[in-house]
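Issue: copy button drops trailing tokens. Both records pasted manually instead:
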Amino acid sequence: MRKIAFSFLTLILSFGCLQKSLSQHAKPGGSQARSLSGPSATIPELWHQFRIASSETRKADLLYELANSYLLNLKIDSSFFCSQQLRKISLEHKYILGLGKYHLASGGACFLRNRGDEALNHADTAITIFESHGSDFYLGMCYRLKARQLGQQSDHKGAQNYFRNAIFFIRRSGDVSYLQRALHDFGRSFYFSFEVDSAAMYLTEALKLAEEMNNDAKIFNTGAMLGSVYLLSNELDAAGKTLKYALDMRPADVDKVHLRGVLANYAEVCILTDRYSEAEQVIREQEKINTVLGDITGQLNDKKLRGFLLYKQGRNGEAMQYLKAAYDLKEQLGKTDFDIITIALYLGVCELKEKMTRQAIAHFHHARQLSASYRFTAATMDANRQLADAFEQINNTDSAYHYYRAYAFIKDSIVINERDKTILDLSAKYNAEKKEFQIKELRKEKELQNKTIEAQQLLAEQRRQQIELVTQQAAVSRLRASEQSHALDNKNKEFSQKQRELEAAQKQNKLQQAVAAKESQNKKLLMVIVVAGLVTVCYVLYRYRQTEKMRKQLTISLSELRQTQQQLIQIEKQNEAHNIRQRISRDIHDEVGATLSGVVLFSEIARQKLGGTSNEDAGEYLDHIYSNSKDMLEKMSDIVWAINPKNDSFEKIIFKLKTYAMNLCAGKGIALHFNIEEALFQYSVSMQTRKNIYLLIKESINNAAKYSMANNIYLSMKRENDLMHIEVCDDGGGFEMNNQTVGNGIGNMQTRAKELGSELVIRSAPEKGTRITLQFEFHPIEVQAALHS
């Protein structure tokens, strides 16, 4: 039985290890090590590894780590030095990734030096390099650097867009530490733009990651920011719990300035929730820090918090003195601090209660103005309500009604937002309950594993008791031998010896009874272990079969999806080839067929004229045949040129247009002016797009040369983002737009514009020339640009 139980336990442990191994291999991503020298390498260790490095690329990577380490220690000049050395090695050995890391490190140093434009330029260059090499982690770091710089310049919307990119790439790289930083920065940007719901969402995710990493400093920083968000949205209970949790987790070397701000926020929460004794303790703690720092911000915090506390305790006169002193410090602060809004509101309320209505109205107006500039809706609503009460106190009913309406309007908007937020909260609650059910299932599995471990411990205890029993039996045997020896040596003690033997026999009997009872108990325990082992094995086998079944189904689904994709790609290629053949056929039919039909008709008329007497008429028709044949050859040449893949580049299009236009305008004395963006020469376009662009511009130049009587013709082509802008204009006689009939030339131009996905715009007036413009989406086949070191 013992051997069977031991076999079951071994089998259970084997399946547990196998399942854990499978889960680890199946887990997507995973944290990637970003340091060549280990996560805790010091700067001297990095320099040592740099000196013994065997390759130049490794030296470059170590210089990047050194530059980052110096940045973390705020040694910016040393960071710049390492970055320059990194650039030198990367250029000498054509290490493109090293150049990307140089721009990333230099951008970080420029960010700390408040050199914003340089930081953005370095970030953009690094993004270009890392995009071409598919480096997700470093690409995410570049986007985070750019977002932080834009946030420092108060461009919070732009910063949020780049933070999204940073989070996407860092999450895909699997680096949890930097993902937590990016989520924290993202939530912080929403806090400064007063989008508290988004700020709370991303800061909550960042706090969970900090807790998973068990990093006290990250928990303190993110928890403090999340508590500030809750305080800003007036969720006092959540703000108090979160700020208290952050303060409990603060590290020993926490920054005093940051700690002072967190303590001030927590003291304000305690005051607003009527916990005056706790608020007093927190205020005293932050006053100690202010004594050490001795700055204006600390003085303002002390007086503000004292004023709030006295006001809440009903001591309006004393509260007004502290709040007035805090309010007057705004001039020394050098800038309008966000706390001035709250100070002005509380000061106005105290003055209103003391019948100092004019002063209260002035402070309420200031608070309303500041809160509107900060887009702080709740403070604006409070200021409007207080202004309504103040004007009502001096019987100015019109102004009181005006501000009460403004208050009611904002309040209704907040109610609507709260309703939407309630819907989101219900959805979040459903997801939380779903996750809680999954957690309970995982706990059940863990409890089953714990029971298995307890069974192993019981088995070990049983073996220990068996060893003790064998030891006791050996002791009994030694005791018998000793008694027999004494009986032979001392016959006079035979009676006492027999008495000892009797006692020993009784002890042995009791011991055997105890052993028998223990064996019975062990048998029962063994049965329990066997049953538990069978249940566990069955459960593990069931889960394994379910996993295998799902894996097979997924494999089949992926195979079918690949086949479907291949079929769709093949069909699309066939359709594209068919469309190209149709377009070529239509062009040949429309352009060449019509011309050949004219040639046949004029040939027949000329033959009839030659058979008669009118040779002059025959000559006229022969001229028509010559003209149409020449036109047909030109059109056939254009079609052949358009379908030739050697002419895919924009440079060939521009060259052919210039050749045609110069030949056409040389004999008419018309000056040509080409303004072509040089970057277009690097692009290649599809056959259809190339043909439509060329023929449309050719027709425009042809019409201007033949009919406009112009002295100058201008052609402009440029690309902005994904849009191509084309413009053909002349300084000729122009025409009246309302009286102009659409001919074949303009009709063909409009048709080609539609094929390009655009609309042809023609503007003209008598004696003011003609302007033809076209704008369409332009996506080249390939861009012939590469980064060269």
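Record 2 (pasted manually too):
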Amino acid sequence: MLLAAQIARAQSGPEILPGTALRPTPSLQAPSARSEAQLPVILQADEIRARPDLDAVAEGHVELRRGGTVIRADRLSYDNADDLAKARGNVRISREGNIFSGPEVQLHLQRFEGFFDQPDYFFAATQAGGHAQRIDFLGEHRVDTVGATYTSCPRDGSGDPPWLLSSDRVKMDFDTNTGVAEGAVLRFYGVPILGAPVMSFPLTDARKSGLLPPLMNFDTKSGFVVGVPYYWNIAPNRDATFTPTVMTRRGFALDTEFRYLSESFHGLVDLNVLPDDRVSHEERHSLQFQHEGDTLMGLHYQADLLRVSDDAYWKDFPRSVPSLTPRLLPLDALADRSFTFAGSDWLTYARVQRWQVLNNADPTSLIDAPYERSPQVGMRGSGRVGGWAGSGLEYSLETEFNRFTLPDTVNTAGRLTGDRWHGVGSLSWPFAIPGGWLTPKLTVNAASYATDHAMADGRRRASRVIPTLSVDSGLVFERDSRWFGQPMRQTLEPRLLYVNTPYRNQAGLPNFDAVGKDFNDISVYSENAFAGVDRVSDAHQLTAGVTTRWLDAKTGAETMRLGIAQRYLFRTQQITPSTEGGLTTEGGPTDQRFSDVLLLASSTLIPRWTLDGSLQYSPDSSRVTRSLMGVRYSPGPFRTVSMHYRYTRNASEQVDIGWQWPIYGPARKPGSGSGGACTGSWYSVGWLNYNKRDSRLTDSLIGLEYDAGCWIGRIVAERVSTGRTEATTRVGIQLEFVGLSKLNLGANPLKVLKDNIAGYRLLREERTEPSASQIYD
């Protein structure tokens, strides 16, 4: 013990031995590699009486330290033989950020075993605490409390906190992240909302087996829905969740999700079963399977399966089909392996792709399924030969075989099926210099077909080879400038692309995967107007464009971009994409020499504002054929408003607005904890999508969020269109008790808010470490 040399000096004067002065620190460092048993006990007080190596009694502003444990009290006695510290009067213990305070404690320091009478406590891991009749310390990471309460809400003396968890007895094991409460009752503003004779819960955000909070929502298709999930933490790399659910209109359902993870593979299986739907009088189910992994031989593989029981499933359970195309569900299996040969990078692959198409009896809402690939086998690679820095002969090759079929449930009339082999190769010699580049390239697209039924010209076999010559070039000029007194660097970037592709008649050939490209700032500089293999547009054209950018001279961040591009045809183009009804398909010849003008703009130059837009203007008709405009205003955390306008002539016109904005109460900082009074702040959230062509609101989301500091409430109403005259309305309510392992009562609307509202932020970020004042004061 470091006592004998300091006892007399603690009473007689301020003389301090060099290097032995005690200095307060706002935070406690974790013990070194040595165990705490090897660390000294440091004791200071107004008065100390001690027998070296036997015992000591300290009174007045007592502070005892050993490693990461600090005890403060009015009076403290320490028995060296038993390693027992007894403290009375304003006792406060700090250890690993956890704080205990009360009238009396007895503690074996090395084993951290003992008891604390009538303590208040605070746990750093959850940023919450409470009061107990007694706490028994059973080791460094085990605590047993009697008559305990728990909350993250501060007590201001006006009564009980907004939410309070009380229990007869709580056993907490921080090593296993397990808490077991006996006779536990959760009260919200004095009203019991959750109770159990025995309740097991995690002490942190880590996973733990047990019942999860109930899920509740209401929608117009299923009525009032209540589910009680059970989470099974099978192993550190495997878990499962079982959710029995009762729907007032449809009956009982069970959702089972199993997840697994290892060093070489991972995946999930999700099965939802409704044995007897009281509305449709049939069994309903959905199945999702995802798996991805690698083998020792360098083979990578993945599988994705999504299937439902019937064509109306996506309408009745719109949030239960996790797909961007809820009426087109995939079965996709892929295996690939990469390798290097002669200094080139290559990839071989094999794939099977099938679809489940969800159609109904309404002929106006039928959808055409894409072709299935069963199988798809191919290889692609690229490399360089010779040359010097920034130059050299570059080559690429893709060769592939596909068997194209159609789903059994779709109408196959007029649609060919069969086999296709194709090869696409290119040779280029790029020349790069500071401030510019020039890349001549030769591309050959070859394909061979064997169809199950005769093509339009009576053949069942056909092939074609189409070459393309292109020259891409560009320059980059830079100069210093200033905007609003800020140093900027402006660029001027002109670009020219020349393409020459001879005409080859492809009208009688199958079209398995080709579709016209969207006209944008990327496709305007492409050699082929079609994506896919089956169609190659003939071209003798020159695309010219220029872009100017303003970059922050200090950070290099782009603050503004302006661009313009247009294409000129030297001869009539026979094979062209055509946009009809919003779909880009194969069209007829065009002799329009000058294409539409493409204008682009984006800016973050004005603080808190983000602007972007594109406009497609037809010089022949002197009209705008397509436009996309977006603006977002974000002056601070939890304050964002955005609007987007999309217009395609003779096809669609849509406006959507999204927002998150405080409407009442004090503003909170991101990541702030639950400290301070539970004074409420109200936030409005929403997203509206309006179709001007049909004069109707398609999808919408309106809600309120309430942040009380120690709890958060949300109510969100969502309307999802499932047809021109059909929609599903859903209402979700959520309560989040901060500090109770993010306990949520109700359906979780957070994913819907984050997916639809640009710039949306969580009202409560991940937990932060306790402040210095919480540890030391």
